[in-house]
Amino acid sequence: MTSYNNPAKSPGGTPTSADYQTLATFRLALRRFMAFSELAAAEVGLMPQQHQALLVVKTLSMDELPSVGDVAEHLLIRHHSAVELINRLVRMELMQRLRDPQDRRRVRVALTPLAEEKLAVLSSAHLDELRAVRPLLMMLLNHFDK
User: What percentage of the chain exceeds 70 in pLDDT?
Assistant: First the structure.
C-alpha cells in the first residue's frame, strides 16, 4: 500500500489540471458504482458489508472454507467485528459455522443455499454494471499511461 504522508514527489511529478480532472472523475465513477452496489444489496435485504462478507466467503471457499479470521482479514476489520457480522449472517440463515475437521478448536464458515442465491443475483447485477462503466474506467485509467 502506498503511503500518502510521504512528502516525496510522485514519479510523474506535479499533477496537471487534466490529472486532477481525471482523478475527480475516476473517484466519482467509483462512488457511483459503490452507490449502485449499496442499493443492489439493500434490494435483496443486505447491508453492504454483509454482501461483501458473502462475496469474501464465496471466493475463499474455492480453496477451503475460510475461518472467521480469514473473513476479518479480507474485510479489513477486527476479529470481533467479523464474529458479530457472521453472527448476523447466521441469524439471517445466510451463513453457517462448521468445526474444522483437522483442528476442532477452529471454526470455519460456509454460505447457505439462500446466500448462494442472493449472491448470484447480486454478482450478475454487479457484472452488468461493471460492463456498462468499463469504457469510462478504461479511458480514465489510460490517461495515466501518457
Answer: 91
Please check the confidence at residue 87 and state whether its pLDDT lies above 70.
yes
Contact between 65 and 110 under an 8 Å Cβ cutoff? The reply is yes
Q: How many CA atoms lie within 13 A of 11 on its CB side?
A: 4
Residue 51 · residue 37 · CB < 8 Å: yes
Phi-psi region of 44 (alpha: psi -120 to 50; beta: other; left: phi over 0): alpha
Q: Hey, which bits of the chain come out as E strands?
A: 95-99, 107-111
Domain 17-145, CATH number (from 3.40.50.300, 2.130.10.10, 3.30.160.250, 1.10.10.10):
1.10.10.10
DSSP string of 114-125? HHHHHHHHHHHH
Q: Which amino acid is at 41?
A: A
What percentage of the chain reaches a pLDDT higher than 90? 82
The residue count of the chain comes to 146
Ordered by start, the domain boundaries in the chain are 17-145
Question: How far is CA 90 from its chain centroid?
Answer: 19
